[in-house]
C-alpha cells in the first residue's frame, strides 16, 4: 500500500525531480523509492531524455521570417497610424 | 487592421538580458538553460536602446531593424505554437503591427525580446482560440521541429531520431495551448523559467506547474522505452 502510494507520488514528480524543483526531503523520498523501483528509475531516465530531446529541437533551423513580416507595419507607418508619442 | 493593440505586456521584475539562442545552438541541457536564454541578438544593447527610442519617436525603419533582429526566432516560435505556416505568417505580421502600435508604451521594464515574445504568445493564443472548434491536434511538421537528423549519424540512428521527433511533434500538437506554450518556451526555446513565465504572463509557480504537466503528458505519449532507447 505504502509502496503504491510512493510510486504514484514519484511518477507525478519526475519532471520536478529532473528540473531540480524538489526540496531535499522530497528528492530523498523519490531517490529512495527509485532505487528499488524499475519503473521509476526508467522514468527518471526517460524524463531526462525527453528534456534533452526537446532541447535538441531548438534554434531557428534555417527557417526565416517571411519578407512580408513588416507589411502591416509599413502600411500603418505610412498611413499616419504609427506608434503614439514616446514616453 | 482595425483591432486595438493588445497593449504592452505587464511589468516584469528583474528579467535578465533579453536575447535568444542563436542559430546552430547545440541542444541545451537543463543546466545550460539560463545561458541559452541570455544569448544576445545581432543588435547590441546600446544600439537596441537607441533603436527603441527612435521607434518610439515614429521611425519605422528603426522599428524594423529593432524587431527584425528577432523576426526569425519569433516566426519559429509561432510555427511551433500554431503548427501552420500560413497562419504563422499572418500572425507574425499582426505581432509586428501590435508591437509597432504599442512601442510608445514600452518602458523597458522587461527586455525588448521578452516584450515582443509576449505579444507573439498572446497573438498565437488568440489565433488558437479562433480555431477552437477545429480539431485540437496541431500538425506540427518537420520544418517546425527541425526533423532532419544530424548527417553524422548512421542511417539506423537517423531513422530512430526522425521517428522520435515525429512522435514528439504529434505529442506536442496534442497538448492544450497553455501546456504547449510552456514546453515550447522552456524546453525548446531554452528560456529561463522567469523569462518564460513572464512571456506566458503567469507566475513562475504556475508556469512550472504547466511545464511539469506538459512533460508528463508528452512522456506518456511517447513511452519511457522509446525515450530511454533514444538516449535523448
Q: What does the secondary structure layout of this molecule look like, with pairings?
A:
The complex is a heterodimer of chains A (87) and B (232).
Chain A lengths: L1 H11 L1 H6 L4 H13 L1 H18 L15 H8 L9
Helix pairs in contact in A: 1-3, 3-4
Chain B lengths: L32 H5 L7 H12 L3 H23 L2 H18 L9 H19 L11 H4 L9 H19 L3 H12 L4 H8 L3 H19 L1 H7 L2
Describe this protein's structure.
The complex is a heterodimer of chains A (87) and B (232). Chain A has 87 residues and is mostly helical. Chain A has a domain at 2-58. Chain A has helices at 2-12, 14-19, 24-36, 38-55, 71-78. In chain A, helix 1 (2-12) packs across helix 3 and helix 3 packs across helix 4. With 232 residues, chain B is an all-alpha fold. Chain B has a single domain (30-230), classed as RNA polymerase sigma factor, region 2, helix turn helix motif (Rna Polymerase Sigma Factor, Chain: A). Chain B has 11 helices and no strands. Chain B has helices at residues 33-37, 45-56, 60-82, 85-102, 112-130, 142-145, 155-173, 177-188, 193-200, 204-222, 224-230. In chain B, helix 8 runs antiparallel to helix 9. Chain B is elongated. The termini of chain B are far apart. In chain B, 46% of the residues are buried. Classes of the chains: A mainly alpha (87), B mainly alpha (232).
